Amino acid sequence: MTQARSFPQRLIALVFTALCALTALALAPPARAEIEVNVNRGDVQPLPIAVPAFAGGQVGADIAQVISANLQRSGLFRPLDPASFIEKDLSAAVQPRFADWKTINAQALVNGQVTVEGGKLRVDFRLWDTFQEQQLLGLQFTSSPENWRRVAHKISDAVYQRLTGEKGYFDTRIVFVAESGSRASPVKRLAIMDQDGANPSYLTSGDSIVMTPRFSSNSQEITYMSLTPEAATVYLFNLETARRESLGSFKGMVFAPRFSPDGGRVAFSVERGGNSDIFVMNLANHSSTRLTSDPAIDTSPSFSPDGTKIAFNSDRSGGPQIYVMNADGSNPRRVSYGDGRYTTPVWSPTGEFIAFTKQTGGQFHIGVMRPDGTDERILTSSYLDEGPTWAPNGRVLMFSRETPGGPPRLWSVDVTGRILQPAPYPGAGSDPAWSPLLN
Predict the structure, then answer these.
(1) What is the rounded distance in angstroms from the CA atom of residue 436 to the CA atom of residue 210?
(2) Of 175, 330, 156, residue with least CA distance to 257
(3) CB–CB of 313/299 below 8 Å?
(4) CA 258 to each of CA 161, 225, 298, 362, 391: distance values in angstroms, whole numbers, following the listed order
(5) 173-434, which class in CATH?
(6) What are the structural domain ranges in the chain?
(7) Does the pLDDT value for residue 3 go beyond 60?
(8) Which of 94, 117, 371, 426 is the most buried (most CB within 10 A)?
(9) Is residue 188 predicted with pLDDT exceeding 60?
């Protein structure tokens, strides 16, 4: 028996309608268990999956290619070579010939159909367990034709979630600092792109140096720092309206802004006379409260997902370490105790980890630890790795990496440290920030 359920999803300037069909079959005890991917294992073997071109012309082939690339970059799936496919010209309305897919060991199969009618793009797709010979998932998306990539990302998220049990992260964007020019005369512009490197665009002109962009929880607003010879200013930038708003003037340099989970506050650091402290501003009335008053350097605040705590960096113990305090500034306590210098703490969206940059042994590392400082894990090591940011499902981190004499590049790594790879953006970039899943 098959049940279908429709649900609307608002997109930027468009509406997706998703129709989810889940199949429940009464079968004899299977020869093998239903396929699944365990995201918590560091030695996971990527699942062989087939993603043939969707029926419906070039756009169908393009959608399948984006899905395949997304799943492959996750490191949890191994898309098979289309040249190995035995069955050709699949239709979403017809059950596949499972024997043909078992022959090439395709443990999962994604196939679909694309149609364009009345100026609307409709994409039907199915996810199959080929060895169980059953449908795991069916979806239908309707959109405008120019948004076909978002359809592909949403299908990727649906497949990822069905096979791993955790939410995907493909229908997201990255805001970052795009760098050009020489070291003596750098040009740093605020830029944004899809998580797979597509659709890059600039948000600022390059007439000032921009730093530390961060997303709000609603995905439509970012905060960043702009540095000119005259002043350092923290701005709010609305991605829908392109409206820019200053947080106001402060005595001293303001830097490292970051939103609270509800988007109603921004925490940041203010440097005065060689000392920096953490403040938080209420965006409704622009009133600010000082949270730290230690004579040491306190910076890089990051809210916990529930908004009750803040992780931050401080050298009050003699060198940069990670501390956690209540969101009102009370009960600060040190949580990092390893060798080296700890900076840029960032709380994961799930609350499970705090990511950080660590400098030790002449190298820089990206690592994670539990919020109480236990279970520290180093995920990367290089000449210069810094500035981690979390994917919204808390499974992947993006950061910037430099080699001696080279420009910074964007890289990603998963929480096991096994899946380390350059991000699909060809230019120089730093200070990445990952958006929540788009609406």
Answers:
(1) 22
(2) 175
(3) yes
(4) 28, 10, 14, 29, 16
(5) mainly beta
(6) 2-164, 173-434
(7) no
(8) 371
(9) yes
